[in-house]
């Protein structure tokens, strides 16, 4: 029996559709404190939409989402912002602010969530977080000067800089080389260990999933089609899963060979 | 804030165009109401407003200077022979002054401003929308409407009247150049003729309406950018439609405001 307070995210019967396209149907899901949950699914299956519903960027058509016991659909914007203070969100597209330097990008969430934080503390925090993603040298660059993989890592740094309790990662390692993928995955794992962070990680990447996953779900046809630990899914005899993961593995192996 | 989505697509039917027309009007109205709901509520984001005003000034200073000067010059060159034919050459400075102050200065500055700034805001906010930067702000507890839209509308509303006064002065200098090409007239005489022909009732409505024009430019650009969808193509569309819609609205509101100012100061009609 799970204790009520150990459930960080509880989703009940969530449904979301766009016009005629049903993206999520009756999804129910619980994530406990300190757990790393992987969300698999083919492109266009609503993984990003699920994360955006959790943080309140998109409103579900029906169903409820609780974060630390608070029903986020019922909160006022100021209360929702209090909840968001403890959530980090890595956008699939990184979503760095084009008009700001890396430094300003990273300071932004700190300044906004913690208006009283001293400048010195902000600077230290920015420096420290950039070290975590090994991009200290990029501090004064503009996003347009960064490579795709660097953007991803800066996006990651920006999302973890507030030390959130709950992290939502939308494809944190897509487009990174296998070595950086490993480093980033290990970073996610160490954050979980060090801060007892809870994470929901959308990924296609098996290297990443194998390093960090405690549990995984697989979205298919708007539903959670499979659920279990990562071994159960990858070694399943189900023909669909076999097919999906064999392609993933091949793709990953090919990439590893290149390096 | 619930907005009606515009119909998307490369080729729209007439019905869809009409639908989009009314959806845009309703969207602009909602944006307008939202602006007044939020503008007096802190945080005021003063530093953002200042930043935008700086940028807008720098962006438009060059182009309005050139245009203003040429407008004044051409207007005087065109009018000169006509007035001469009626033996009314003495009225030239006054005529140039009145046209520039009452109508040409405000409207042309506003149209150039719309072309340069509304499209810029549309593109900037549009690309922030489609690359999820606006969502990222929301996640960081920032009210993106306040931070991005309200600050820009305030900036455009404050900058355009200043630019207009500047353009009027430059255009009058252009007019002087046209005059001295044809006949000799000392500057002091020109200046006195200009100043004595302009009255309060000419100057105030002319400049006052540019507050409205500036507001329109900020509002339309922000609305189009903020609601952009569909990747880079959507950004391009946000940018071009901003110019079209804001220019059109400027001309429509000019008509309305001229009517109102003639009603307020009937003797000058
Ligand atoms: N704002 C939106 N308006 C309309 N449809 C949308 C919107 N956002 C997502 N969709 C649709 O919802 C579906 C799921 O999108 P989503 O981005 O969640 O996919 P995904 O699983 O994250 O895919 P990928 O792995 O490619 O990122 C897609 O078919 C997409 O077209
Ligand atoms: Mg996605």
Strand percentage of chain B lies at under 5%
N to C succession of SSEs of chain B: HHHHHHHH
Topology, number of strands of chain A = 10
Oligomeric assembly: heterodimer
Give the helix level of chain A as a range of percent: 40-55%
What does the largest sheet of chain B look like?
Answer: none
- Residue share in helix of chain B: over 70%
Which structural category fits the helices and strands of chain B? Answer: mainly alpha
Output mean pLDDT of chain A.
89
Could you tell me the mean pLDDT of chain B?
91
Of all chain pairs, the largest interface belongs to: A-B, 21 and 15 residues
Distance between the termini of chain B: 42 Å
Please provide a written account of the structure.
The complex is a heterodimer of chains A (259) and B (269). Chain A has 259 residues and is α/β, with parallel strands linked by helices. Chain A is 41% helix and 25% strand. In chain A, helix 4 crosses helix 5 (148-160). Chain A is globular, with a radius of gyration of 18 Å. Chain B is mostly helical and 269 residues long. Chain B has eight helices and no strands. Chain B has one domain (43-268). The chains are: A alpha/beta (259), B mainly alpha (269). Residues 18, 21, 23, 41, 43-49, 92 of chain A line the site of adenosine-5'-triphosphate.
């Amino acid at each position: 029996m799970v204790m009520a307070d150990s459930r960080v995210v509880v989703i009940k019967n969530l449904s979301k559709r766009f016009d005629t396209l049903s993206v999520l149907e009756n999804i129910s899901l619980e994530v406990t404190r300190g757990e790393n949950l992987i969300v698999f699914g083919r492109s266009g299956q609503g993984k990003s939409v699920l994360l955006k519903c959790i943080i309140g960027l998109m409103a579900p058509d029906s169903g409820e989402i609780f974060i630390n016991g608070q029903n986020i659909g019922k909160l006022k914007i100021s209360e929702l912002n209090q909840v968001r203070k403890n959530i980090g969100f890595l956008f699939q597209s990184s979503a760095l602010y084009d008009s700001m330097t890396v430094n300003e990008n990273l300071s932004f969430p700190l300044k906004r969530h913690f208006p009283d934080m001293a400048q010195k503390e902000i600077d230290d925090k920015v420096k420290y977080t950039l070290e975590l993603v090994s991009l200290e040298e990029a501090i004064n660059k503009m996003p347009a000067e960064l490579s795709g993989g660097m953007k991803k890592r800066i996006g990651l740094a920006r999302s973890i800089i507030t030390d959130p309790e709950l992290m939502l990662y939308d494809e944190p390692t897509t487009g990174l080389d296998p070595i950086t993928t490993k480093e980033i995955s290990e970073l996610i794992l160490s954050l979980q260990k060090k801060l007892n962070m809870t994470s929901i990680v959308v990924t296609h990447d098996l290297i990443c999933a194998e390093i960090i996953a405690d549990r995984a779900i697989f979205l298919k046809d708007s539903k959670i089609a499979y659920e279990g630990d990562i071994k159960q899914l990858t070694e399943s005899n189900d023909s669909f899963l076999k097919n999906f993961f064999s392609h993933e593995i091949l793709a990953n192996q090919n990439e590893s060979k290149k390096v | 804030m619930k907005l009606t989505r515009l119909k998307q697509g490369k080729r729209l039917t007439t019905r869809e165009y009409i639908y989009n027309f009314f959806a845009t009007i309703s969207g602009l109205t909602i944006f307008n109401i939202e602006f007044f709901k939020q503008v007096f509520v802190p945080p005021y984001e003063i530093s953002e407003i200042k930043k935008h005003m700086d940028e807008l000034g720098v962006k438009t200073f060059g182009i309005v200077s050139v245009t203003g000067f040429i407008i004044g010059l051409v207007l005087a060159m065109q009018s000169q022979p006509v007035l001469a034919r009626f033996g009314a050459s003495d009225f030239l400075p006054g005529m140039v002054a009145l046209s520039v102050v009452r109508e040409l200065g405000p409207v042309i500055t506003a149209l150039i401003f719309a072309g340069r700034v509304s499209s810029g805001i549309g593109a900037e906010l549009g690309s922030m929308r489609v690359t999820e930067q606006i969502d990222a702000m929301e996640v960081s507890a920032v009210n993106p409407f306040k931070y991005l839209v309200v600050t820009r509308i305030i900036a455009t509303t404050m900058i355009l009247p200043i630019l207009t006064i500047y353009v009027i002065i430059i255009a009058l200098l252009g007019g002087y150049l046209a005059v001295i090409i044809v006949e000799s007239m000392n500057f002091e005489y020109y200046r006195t003729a200009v100043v004595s022909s302009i009255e309060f009732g000419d100057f105030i409505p002319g400049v006052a309406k540019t507050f409205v024009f500036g507001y329109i430019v900020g509002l339309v650009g922000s609305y189009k950018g903020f609601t952009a969808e569909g990747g880079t193509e959507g950004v391009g569309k946000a940018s071009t439609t901003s110019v079209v819609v804001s220019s059109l609205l400027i001309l429509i509101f000019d008509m309305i405001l001229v009517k109102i100012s003639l009603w307020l100061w009937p003797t000058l009609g």
